[in-house]
Amino acid sequence: MSAAVITRAAMAAAVDEIVAGAQHVSINEERLQSLAQSVQDYFRHRPVSDLDGNAVNPAEAPVVNDRDTLQYFLMRRAQSFVIWRWTGQTQPAVEAFDCQVNGVLYTGERAVNACIMRAVNEGVPLLDPSYLSSMTMADVEHVYRDERGGPPTYQLLDRRLAKFREVGQVLSDRYDGHMANLLEAADGQLFRSDGNGSIQALVREFPQCYGDYPFAKLAVTLMTALYNRRDLDIPTTNEYMRLTRIDDPENLFGPTDYYIPMFLMRWGVFDLSDEFNAHLAERTLIDQDSDIEREFRACTLHVFDRVRELAGVSMAELDIEFWYQGAFRCRPCSPADPDPVPCPHRSGCLAWNQDRRRMDLGWPLVYTPFY
């Protein structure tokens, strides 16, 4: 794919075409507007997110913003995919990945954070491109080891190894060994006419890690994560502030994973075909790049754009809220729980209040390297 093809307009057109022809997902406009109102009301009185605390926990992330932080998150974000595993049971058939690290049991994205930070703190040179490009499967298994014993349960270790290696190789070959040089060329732009915007470069130069056209989920979340860290109360260099600025925020778009579509389905924004419903009810795999997968991802992007427009919040803020809602509120939510997880959007949730069948549907299961 040439740099000329990777433009915001081309990506948006590709997504719009999928939405227009979708057979397995339809968007309920009335429910979408209701969700936008709920989001707007919530953001007026929003408390500090738990994510802020995790972001400054040295067991889960660097507690400084500098050149090493840029390198760290390029490597780290590429590992954020298929953060779930099979249980070998009927109910539940799947569960979020968890791992015991330094005596603490972490779940989901936090478990991945803890594994990577443990390795860094142990002196594993995960910021060194020469080490990354020469990693072995034994190295990856060491990174993701569970102190409870047994082999790592983080799925698709072969793809994780390939991603570590690609980050190291591309940094060495194209960017003089450092993520900072990619961001220097981007100069604050996600998309540039010369093709060197940060998202363009990530999608083009790191095809195994970030080449998720036209959705670019991991590339988008990498850039928003680096940007959002600017607001944390931690030491931050002037160079970090300069390299992580986003001068074209209008070109941001939402991330398309598996927890956010589950939230949109439960809220009633998504109505699904019988085939898609069966996949979610029976916890069966959906093929990567199938019509179902491309449709729920494209429709998720459409909802992000519409809610941003209607609620008047930034895409970076909406990104965090929708992901947190799906991962930490919808995923553990059960009507049978006598003490359900606190949820600011429950009063308008279609699944909770009216259509309990939607509560029985899981998240979309796809073996993909991109979410």
Automatic annotation (TrEMBL):
GO biological process terms, semicolon-separated: tRNA modification
Output the superkingdom of the source species. Answer: Bacteria
A single Gene Ontology molecular function, please?
hydrolase activity
Q: Which reaction does it catalyse?
A: queuosine 5'-phosphate + H2O = queuine + D-ribose 5-phosphate
Q: Give the matching PANTHER family.
A: QUEUOSINE 5'-PHOSPHATE N-GLYCOSYLASE_HYDROLASE, QUEUOSINE 5'-PHOSPHATE N-GLYCOSYLASE_HYDROLASE-RELATED
Give the family this protein belongs to, as stated in its UniProt record: Belongs to the QNG1 protein family.
> Would you tell me the protein name for this molecule?
Queuosine 5'-phosphate N-glycosylase/hydrolase
Origin species, per record, is Ornithinimicrobium humiphilum
